[in-house]
Design a protein that fits this description.
This protein is mainly alpha-helical and 129 residues long. It folds into two domains: 61 residues, no CATH class; 49 residues, no CATH class. Strands 2-1-3 form a three-stranded parallel beta sheet. The longest helix is centred in the middle third of the chain and has 16 residues.
Length: 129
Amino acid sequence: MKVLVDTNIWSLALRRKVESDTAHRLKELIYSYQVIMIGPVRQELLSGISNVDEFNKLKLKLEAYNDFPITTQEYVTAAEFYNTCRKYGVQGSKIDFLICAAAVNNDMHIYTKDMDFDSFSKYLPIKLL
């Protein structure tokens, strides 16, 4: 099983000093080579870190993960997912829908703490971890 890890999980595990169930689960996924990274998640993680040393430390840690290729089909699927959810009054970010599209099109689960994904799952064929 491959797992696309959302930004909030990485943030909980990498930016915080306290060990949590979330961080423990992420470590298990890392050690079993199940973790998938996409460029937009990497960008979100690195954005907003004003301390250059902290930015470089996190950038170095994330270099262990190659970006899974996002194709035109993922962008088209993300737009379709956005439109589907919006039709039912469910809002989300474009990156969240790109995560959903990449996961669905490539048979991956999504690991997130973002409750929006629970709403998405009512209308989209996503698999949440």
